[in-house]
């Protein structure tokens, strides 16, 4: 009999990278610029034109003006006109970014996973608990009275029956039945705190842009991967106030001090209203509290070093959150050793976690896990 000598196995070929269109190349750069300019389209395009002059990003066939037209056609920007008072439109209009671009900016974000969870309402977070849950876990146990019939593994049960009774006298008893374990899922209520104090742009360091990127990433993670969870966002400067997810790309710093205590108070007030068992706070900051609200309504401010009175109030809030079983995860957008020491002490008081992200986003961070009393580098 003639054999077919057809080669089998894997065939490896040289990797050919996907070629980007002129729009896609410019769009990557534009999204970075629009984040830096806090949603200011005109300023971002000015920067893009300067980069084009220096690095020849465009050609005669595809110019910056063509790119702007494509942004309009694809629904990433729109023109807004001011009324002229006569029922018409005034001027050439101003280009602003749309919700579609806001979502695109958030999708560029980083993905962070939540910590340990306790049982609560049915949600989307895996926990360490097994039993009557939502997702198959790959582990088996003997059937117990009350187990749902759809959880019985017929393959494993028939295998047990053959082993226990043989093929000739095959029969299936309750003792042969095997149930596959399932993993219970939980819901999470999260408050995301963002520092917008003036120190986030001091000393020639742009700390607010990395903070915005982390905030957009975390919000995208929570709202898309865990839709049953709740997410509240607040910003804190001299005071603290809530904002919406769609406001994140437009965030900018103000002439504010850093009232971390006010932010934590508002965050815990928000979480007290939630019915979920699992609650947590994510705080994005440069790690330097410098302001407090006094009982008479005035502000106590000290931007020189770490004021002991302000710092101790922060530690008290961290301990209070710990008593309420609210872990705080701090994303520190700074590399000053004395600020890291504050975050270390703050995290220890709460038994939470800290990520030291530096100014390069999240290329490398030191993840401090006080719950497990260990440190490791994530690359």
Automatic annotation (TrEMBL):
Signal peptide: none annotated. It holds the Pfam family VWA_2. InterPro entries: VWF_A, vWFA_dom_sf. Residues 190-288 form the VWFA domain. Gene3D superfamilies: von Willebrand factor, type A domain. This is VWA domain-containing protein. It comes from Patiriisocius hiemis.
């Amino acid at each position: 009999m003639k054999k077919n000598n057809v080669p089998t196995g894997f065939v490896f070929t040289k990797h050919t990278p996907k070629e980007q269109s002129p729009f896609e190349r410019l769009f990557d750069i534009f999204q970075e610029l629009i984040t830096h300019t806090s949603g200011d389209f005109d300023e971002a395009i000015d920067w893009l034109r300067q980069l084009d002059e220096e690095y020849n990003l465009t050609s005669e066939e595809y110019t910056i003006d063509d790119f702007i037209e494509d942004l309009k056609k694809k629904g990433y920007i729109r023109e807004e006109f001011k009324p002229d008072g006569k029922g018409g439109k005034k001027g050439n209009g101003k280009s602003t970014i749309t919700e579609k671009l806001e979502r695109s900016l958030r999708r560029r974000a980083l993905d962070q996973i939540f910590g340990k969870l306790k049982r609560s309402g049915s949600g989307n977070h895996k926990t360490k608990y097994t039993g009557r849950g939502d997702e198959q876990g790959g582990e088996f146990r003997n059937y117990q009275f009350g187990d749902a019939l759809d959880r019985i593994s017929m393959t494993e049960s028939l295998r047990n029956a053959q082993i226990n009774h043989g093929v000739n006298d095959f029969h299936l008893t309750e003792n042969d039945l095997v149930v596959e374990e399932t993993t219970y899922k939980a819901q999470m209520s999260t408050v995301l705190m963002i520092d917008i104090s003036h120190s986030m742009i001091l000393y020639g360091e742009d700390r607010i842009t990395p903070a915005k990127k982390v905030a957009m990433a975390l919000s995208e993670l929570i709202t898309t991967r865990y839709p049953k969870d709740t997410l509240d966002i607040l910003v804190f400067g001299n005071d603290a106030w809530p904002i919406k997810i769609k406001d994140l790309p437009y965030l900018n710093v103000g002439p504010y001090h850093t009232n971390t205590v006010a932010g934590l108070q508002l965050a815990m007030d928000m979480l007290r209203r939630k019915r979920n068992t699992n609650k947590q706070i994510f705080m994005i900051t440069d790690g330097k509290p410098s302001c407090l609200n006094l009982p008479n309504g005035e502000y106590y401010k000290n931007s020189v070093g770490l004021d002991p009175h302000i710092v101790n109030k922060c530690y008290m809030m961290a301990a209070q959150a710990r008593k309420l079983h609210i872990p705080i995860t701090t994303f520190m957008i700074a590399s000053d050793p004395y600020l890291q020491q504050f975050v270390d002490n703050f995290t220890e008081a709460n038994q939470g976690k800290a990520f030291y992200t530096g100014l390069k986003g999240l290329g490398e961070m030191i993840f401090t896990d006080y719950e497990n009393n260990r440190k490791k580098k994530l690359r």
